[in-house]
Amino acid sequence: MITFSKLRFVKKPVCLLLCALLSTVPVSWAEASLEDLPEIGTTAAATLTIEKELEYGDAYMRLLRASKPIINDPLLSEYVKDLGHRLVANAQDVRTPFEFFLIQNREVNAFAFFGGHVALHSGLFLHAQSESELASVMAHEIAHITQRHLARSMEDQAKKSPATMAALIGSLMLAIASPEAGIAAMQATTAASVQGQINYTRSNEMEADRIGIATLAKAGFDVQAMPGFFGRLADQYRYASTPPAMLLTHPLPESRIADTRSRAAQYPPRRVAVSENYLLAQARIIARYANLDSRNALDWFNRKGKEARGATLMAVNYGKAVVYMDSGKYDQARELLMPLLQAEPGNRFFIDSATDLDLFQKRYDSAINRLQHALKSNPENAVLRLNLAHALLEAGRAKDSLSLLSRFTYDNPADINGWGMLAEAYAGIGRRDGELAARAEVMALRGDWEKAIQNYIQASQIVDVGSLDQARYDARIDQLRLARARFADL
């Protein structure tokens, strides 16, 4: 279905500054002892409350939407959220809600920041060989949040001189958005302060590893995946002149990998079944979000499929079908996709792509009927609801999509896809005020408060004076102005 992943993004100076100040502490895979780590605890409330963390997290998330190519693909969003929340359900000291999302970037990287936000680069799917390996990275980042490592780092720096603290915090935060620049900035600070920060983040990393492995075990994943994945990355980029961002902010010395091996060995071996959903998510990323042209993407799938069996072969055929469909080769796509859908009629990966294929070939009734049938057994599923709304819009039935999208945006106020489709639906029935209001919500989600407010002002001027719609728009203007003021204060 249509998503907002391909939009152009502009990095504004204020965004770069706040990215430097609000991003997570860049974790440092430093040398560690094989002995058990002490409990460090989760203090830091004196420096930064949970409520303030949530405010910072929301602000930074809006800036990321405006500056980074976030993948707003409902299927992939559902997958990473489900996987993330499975881990969170087995984590300790959870104090905030969690949000997991993907950034379209082939480099291997992940980072966490205030308010329970965890970002994953799509490049992780190009290197992780199993769901357990991907989960090991996520579990590590979850531990950084539950243990409040960023807030604790700020508390530690507050004990130093303000000038030194500002220099270190700024440079360390910048290292997430731009590792080379952040490391250069760190080197410009005093050697003693830098060493103190390295020692502090080393303890954070050791704690995140220990807690992350425990979370993996409780959630039913293979704990050997963590040392396996990190060890393979270290070997692959050992002599690289320009290592990926993750290795700049997460160095992997042998002692570091040995420590995770030792910790993983304390858990009994576990045989984990191959995750079909992971393989399908990986195939979708290769087909659409790896910056590969159709020929190279097909070559990747053909090489993968030479010895593929079972779920792996299914994922290969699914990926090839998506490539063919996006290339306009609809008959070839249908030939691969339909057997998959017949084998698993409830699989949302297959339903989504079959919907796209039907819409490309103007088989609107087929797409709508399939989605309505699927929703009977899963009426609240976001992927199916958005697909149905999209199919109705493509079929010229904007009016029919309105109630569906109004309910969806109410349930999912931070979903850009829903607001974009709602704007399209209002445009389709000639409701300019509704279109302006929906587009305003997209702007607000990207932190563009001025344009969002102006859109609502225009919407208020269009409708009848004293009407319920005008009252609603005016109330929203007041809310956005208050949000703008709080955003500026941060």
Features:
490 residues; mainly alpha; three-stranded mixed beta sheet; 3% strand; flat
What would your notes on this structure say?
It is a single chain. It contains 24 helices and three strands. 48% of the residues are buried. Strand 2 and strand 3 (117-121) form a beta hairpin. It is an all-alpha fold. The protein has a three-stranded mixed beta sheet with strand order 1-3-2. The two termini are 36 Å apart. Among the domains are: 13-264, no CATH class; 431-490, no CATH class. Mean pLDDT is 84; it is low at 4-41 and 168-195. Helix 1 (13-22) packs across helix 7 (162-177), helix 13 packs parallel to helix 15 (310-326) and helix 23 packs antiparallel against helix 24 (468-489). Helices cover 67% and strands 3% of the residues. The protein is flat. Its EC number is 3.4.-.-. Its cofactor is Zn(2+). It is an enzyme of class 3 (hydrolase). The active site is at 141, 209 (proton donor). Residues 76-263 form the Peptidase M48 domain.
- Proportion of strand residues: under 5%
Question: Can you count the beta strands?
Answer: 3
How far the N terminus sits from the C terminus, by CA atoms, comes to 36 Å
- Secondary structure class reads mainly alpha
Mean pLDDT: 84
Describe the biggest sheet? 3 strands, mixed
Strand order in the largest sheet: 1-3-2
> What is the H-and-E element order?
HHHEEEHHHHHHHHHHHHHHHHHHHHH
Quick one: overall form? flat
Backbone CA Rg: 24 Å
Percent of residues in helical segments? 55-70%
- The low-confidence runs, each spanning 5 or more residues with pLDDT under 50, are 4-41, 168-195
Number of helices: 24
